[in-house]
């Protein structure tokens, strides 16, 4: 299966996928990363792809007249690599109807909180501020909401009294990277069905 991964930052989730595929081999893992896309230049996530010899593209909102034009351009850029599955690994933009028309049902996101709790761009900070005793991460299909699509898998992480946002986020990311690698591999190898809010992996 062909994966396109979208990033906006350090790309450690992308790196976890790259390392797993390198270690187990494309055949055994069931997927290969054919391109990495971003919404901005100069991020470590793109450097990780370049070091792995993987084609990259950047699609910036400010390069387009309207948000919808950006959304359509992003869909085109992703489509050019004919992906079977698109993975948002720390991609910090909300896609629109054109992107979802083309990739809905095969567009997966990872979020650093236990959805439906704490959706949005500050899930770790919000869980900490709320005083949650456990939080975690969620891998889900992207729908037309923000972090509201059908949940595929979740991992639980305890919150410690001494945690600040970055310490807690680092601990969440350790679980998140393993969860994403495991879920993407299973989706690619086994195939899946989405039945309402349920995801059935064969
Ligand atoms: C991940 O925790 C992701 O869930 C969140 O931002 C982080 C990205 O980390 N949206 P990285 O870029 O994969 O290191």
Automatic annotation (TrEMBL):
Annotated Pfam families: Formyl_trans_N (PF00551)
Domain called Formyl transferase N-terminal: residue spans: 1-184
Gene Ontology biological-process annotations: 'de novo' IMP biosynthetic process
Any one Gene Ontology cellular component term annotated for this protein: cytosol
Sites where the protein binds N(1)-(5-phospho-beta-D-ribosyl)glycinamide: 11-13
Reaction equations catalysed: N(1)-(5-phospho-beta-D-ribosyl)glycinamide + (6R)-10-formyltetrahydrofolate = N(2)-formyl-N(1)-(5-phospho-beta-D-ribosyl)glycinamide + (6S)-5,6,7,8-tetrahydrofolate + H(+)
Site keyed Raises pKa of active site His: positions: 147
SUPFAM superfamilies named in the record: Formyltransferase (SSF53328)
Entry's Gene Ontology molecular function annotations: phosphoribosylglycinamide formyltransferase activity
Pathway: Purine metabolism; IMP biosynthesis via de novo pathway; N(2)-formyl-N(1)-(5-phospho-D-ribosyl)glycinamide from N(1)-(5-phospho-D-ribosyl)glycinamide (10-formyl THF route): step 1/1
Coiled-coil positions: none
Keywords from the UniProt entry: Purine biosynthesis, Transferase
Annotated catalytic residues: 111 (proton donor)
EC number(s) recorded for this UniProt protein: 2.1.2.2
Residues where (6R)-10-formyltetrahydrofolate binds: 67, 92-95, 109
Family per record: Belongs to the GART family.
Task of the protein: Catalyzes the transfer of a formyl group from 10-formyltetrahydrofolate to 5-phospho-ribosyl-glycinamide (GAR), producing 5-phospho-ribosyl-N-formylglycinamide (FGAR) and tetrahydrofolate.
Name of the featured protein: Phosphoribosylglycinamide formyltransferase
Provenance organism: Streptomyces phaeofaciens
Classification of source organism: Bacteria, Bacillati, Actinomycetota, Actinomycetes, Kitasatosporales
